[in-house]
Design brief:
The structure is a homodimer of 463-residue chains. Chain A is α+β, with helices and mostly antiparallel strands. The first copy, chain A, contains 13 helices and 18 strands. Chain A folds into 2 domains: 4-200 and 371-462, Zn peptidases (Aminopeptidase, 3-Layer(aba) Sandwich), CATH 3.40.630; 202-256 and 302-366, Alpha-Beta Plaits, CATH 3.30.70. In chain A, strands 1-2-6-3-7-17 form a 6-stranded mixed β-sheet, with helices on both faces. Chain A has a 4-stranded antiparallel β-sheet with strand order 11-13-9-14, covered by helices on one side. A 3-stranded antiparallel β-sheet of chain A has the order 4-5-18.
Chain lengths: 463, 463
Amino acid sequence: MKDIKSYVEENKDRFLNELIDLLKIPSISADSNYKDSMLKTAEAVKENLLQAGCDAAEICETPGHPVVYAEKIIDKNLPTVLVYGHYDVQPPDPLDLWNSPPFEPVIKETEIHPDGAIFARGACDDKGQMFMHVKALEYMTKNDELPCNVKFMIEGEEEVGSEHLGWFIENNKEKLANDVILISDTGMIAKDTPSITTGLRGLSYIEVEVTGPNRDLHSGLYGGAVANPINILSKMIASLTDENNHITIPGFYDKVEELSREERVKMAEAPYSEDAYKKKLDIKDVHGEAGYSTLERASIRPTLDVNGIWGGYIGEGAKTVLPGKAYAKISMRLVPNQDWKEITQLFKKHFESIAPDAVKVEVKPHHGGQAYVTPIDNIGYRAASKAYEKSFGKTPIPQRSGGSIPIVTLFEKELKSKIILMGFGFDTDAIHSPNEHFGIWNYLKGIETIPWFYKYFTEMKQE
Amino acid sequence: MKDIKSYVEENKDRFLNELIDLLKIPSISADSNYKDSMLKTAEAVKENLLQAGCDAAEICETPGHPVVYAEKIIDKNLPTVLVYGHYDVQPPDPLDLWNSPPFEPVIKETEIHPDGAIFARGACDDKGQMFMHVKALEYMTKNDELPCNVKFMIEGEEEVGSEHLGWFIENNKEKLANDVILISDTGMIAKDTPSITTGLRGLSYIEVEVTGPNRDLHSGLYGGAVANPINILSKMIASLTDENNHITIPGFYDKVEELSREERVKMAEAPYSEDAYKKKLDIKDVHGEAGYSTLERASIRPTLDVNGIWGGYIGEGAKTVLPGKAYAKISMRLVPNQDWKEITQLFKKHFESIAPDAVKVEVKPHHGGQAYVTPIDNIGYRAASKAYEKSFGKTPIPQRSGGSIPIVTLFEKELKSKIILMGFGFDTDAIHSPNEHFGIWNYLKGIETIPWFYKYFTEMKQE
C-alpha cells in the first residue's frame, strides 16, 4: 500500500475530470422535472463502478428513484465492506446567490482551500465524497491491493428522505450482507484536525398549511376582521419556542438523552473559536437554547427550524392582499432516544391544538429518521482511526455531528452491522447552500485514506 | 335627462365590449415587465375620452407611469367636475386560482349578479368603474345634457401608491382646478341598499428584511446554534399584536379617533349578518380586535396585516436549509388623525428595536396615505345623494369603508375641493383577488346615476 500517495498524485487530473463530469448532471431528486437527469446520473455511477473494477453493477428500480448496486467479490470467506452513498443532490435554489451555475463545475482557490476547490451542487454532498470510494476501489483493483469483498449501494433519494431505501434493503438483505458499512457523507474538523463522526441527529420534516378565508381578500375591506393566515402562522411558529429557545411542544424533551458532565467537558475540549465562527457567518451573536454552548446546540441538542415560509404577495412592489393561505416547511433535528415518528405526532397534535378557530390547519409529515451514535470500541471505528493515523499522521477525534442521515439506523437494524462515518468535507463547504464546494486536497486525501481502512479492517476482522 | 335609462339600454352591448377591450390589456403597474401595456392602456383611455366628447386629451409623462388628462370645457363660468380614476390594476397572482385568465374577460352569472358579471383583473378596480364616467360623459355630450365643465385625471400608479401623482398635481394646479372631485373606486352595500362612502382608512405599506448568517446554511450543522431569520421574523411579527389583537407598537393608538357611542350605535344599524359573512368566506369564526364588532374592525379601527412573507426553500419537496434571509410585506390601515408618515416611523423604530442581536433588520417604507372622512353636509354629497335617489329610488346610506385611496387627502389639500366617492362595486367582487369581477347591473347603474350628479351639482352650485 505504500504507493497509494503516488497513484493519487499521478492520476489526480483524471480523478478531478471524472468527478466534474458527474457533477454536470443535475440530479435533483426533490424536483420531478429532473427524472431523466436522475437516470442519467445512475447510469454514469454504474459505468464508473464497472471501470473501477466491480464484477457486476446494476440499476435497481424502486418505486422512486433507482439504487445503483455493484460488487466485487474476491473470496466469500473474506470480510465484506458495504459502501453507501447517494447520487442525488439538494435543489440549488436560490440560484441568484451562486457565483457560477450550480451544474457547471469550476475550480477556484479559497482561503480554506488554497489548493483549489470544485464549486458545484453535489461537489461535497455527496457526489464528491461518494466518488472517493470509486477511485479508492480503482487503486486497489489496479494494484492488486483489495484485501476483501466490496459492495456499493448508491441511492438517489437521500435528499428527500430515502423514502424507498428501506423497501430496497428489506428486499435485498442477502445481496447486501456485509461486515461493516462505510459512508462518506459527513465532515471533519480541519486539515490538521482529522475527525470521525460518531453521532448524527435524527430528523422530522413537516409541512404546514394555514387556511383563512376561502380566497385572497382585499386587506382594506377585510383587514382587522378576518384572520390573516400569515399573521396567524407567524404567531403559531413563534409560540413553538419560548424565551429560552426551548421547544414548547408538550413531551418533546421527555426522552432526550442528557449527556453527563464529563462528556460535556470532553466535548468542550474540541478546538473551537466562537469569534472565528461568528466572523465566518458575519453574525453579531450566536443564538440558541439557554444553558448550552454553540457546539452542544449544534450536535447533542434537538432543534426546530423553519426551512421555508411563503404566503401572500411576494412579487415586486406592493399588493394589499389578505391571503387565503400561508405555508411553512418546518424541521426538527432530534437526538438519541427521541423517536422521529413519535415527535412528528407530538408536533402535529400540538400545532393543530394551538390554531385559533378562525383558521384551518393542515400538518403534513414529510420524512424523518432516528438519531444515531457509533460506539468507538468496535473494529470498524478502530480500523478507521488507524487509517487516518496513517494518512494524516494524527489520531482522529470522535465527533458528534448535528446533521442527519435518516437511513443510518435502519442499516444497523436490518443489516446488523456497524456504520463508520468517514467524512472529508468541512463545515464551510456550503453543502445545501449556494456555492457548495469540495476541496481538492480533501477529495484526494479521502481517496488516499480509504484503502488503509480496507487493509486494517480486514486484518482486525481476521485476528 | 329622462332618456338616460333608454340610452343605456340601447347601447349596453357596445358599453360592455368597449370595457372588455380595455380589460384585455394587462396594465400591471407593480411589475416593470408591463411597461408597454401600461402605455397601451393609457392610449386606449385617451382615445375613449376623445370619442366620448372631450375637446382635448393628452398623455402626461411623469417620472413613473403617465397620467391621462382630458377635458371638456363648455363655459368657464359654470362649475367644473374633476373625475379621478386609475387605469392600472393589481398583479393577478396567484394565477392558478383564477377560473379564467385574468386578462381574457368573460361574462358569467353569479348568485349576486344574476344579470352577469365581467370577470377580469381590473373589471371593478378600477377600469370598469372609471369607464362608467367615460360612458356617462358620452351620454351627456351626445344628448346635449352636459350641464357643466368636466375634467378627467386617470392615473397609472394607484395600485403602487400613486407615487408621482402628488408631483403631477403640484405642477398642474391650474389645469386641474375644479369645484368637486368625483371618484368611483369604492363599493356600495347591496342592490337594494345604495351607499356612498364617506370615510377611507389610511395606509402605511412596509417591506422588512431579516438577515441571519451571510449565506444559506445546512440546518443540521448550524440549526440550534445560529439564528434562523424565518423563526426570528415570525417571532417579531407575532409580537406586533397582543392577545387582544391590539397592535403593540408604542404610540400607535395615540391619535386614533374614537367614535362616540351614538356613532357606533348608528353604524350597528347597517344591514349585516355575521353568519352570512362567515359562510361567504368559509370561516368558522371572525378574528379581530377585542371590544369591536366586525363592521367596526373593518372600517373605523386601524389594523396590521402581513400581505406577503417569504424565505428559505419554497419549492417542491424538502430542503433542510437554515436560510440567510427572510422577508415580509406588512401594511397597516390607519384611521382619521393617524399620520401615515409618523406611523411608518413608529413601526420602523419599534421593529428595529425588537430584533435580537443575532440578526440584522432592514425596514423599507414603501408607500402610504392618510385616512379621509367626507362631511355629508356639503353640496357634493347632497348632489350625489339626490342622484342615487333618482336612479335607485332610495336614499343612499353614508358608509365608512375600510379600504384606502391614499391620494385622496392630497386632492383636498392641493386642489381645495371635496371628494365624492360614488362606488358601485360590491365587497364580494373580489378586487385584489383571483376572479375579480364587476356586475353588469352595477356597471350600467353607475352610468345611469352619474349624469344626475352633474345635473344636481350644477343646480345646487348655482343656487
